[in-house]
C-alpha cells in the first residue's frame, strides 16, 4: 500500500491551481460543489489506493497539509 505524499509534487502548480479556479467561474454554488465532487471522485479513482485516499481525507478534515 502507498503512503500519502504531502510534499510539493505538481509541476506548474500555479497554473494547475488557476485552471481549477477558472473551472468554477460562472457556476452557481450548487454547480461548484458538484464540480468539486466529480473531481474528487475522478482523482480517488485515479489514485486507486484506499489507504492513501483515507489518509488524505483524514488530513484534509484536520485542516493539515503535512
Order of helices and strands: HHH
User: What Rg, in angstroms, do the CA atoms define?
Assistant: 13 Å
Helix count equals: 3
Number of strands: 0
- The helix content is 55-70%
Given as residue ranges, the uncertain stretches (5+ residues, pLDDT < 50) are none
Mean pLDDT: 95
**Gross morphology:** globular
Give the percentage of residues in beta strands. under 5%
The end-to-end span amounts to: 19 Å
* Biggest beta sheet attributes: none
- Structural class, from secondary structure content? mainly alpha
Show the helix and strand layout.
Elements: H1 13-23, H2 29-47, H3 50-62
Write a structural description:
The chain has 66 residues and is an all-alpha fold. The protein has 3 helices and no strands.
Keywords:
single chain; 66 residues; mainly alpha; 3 helices; 65% helix; globular
Question: What is the structure about, briefly put?
Answer:
The chain has helices spanning 13-23, 29-47, 50-62. The chain is mainly α and 66 residues long.
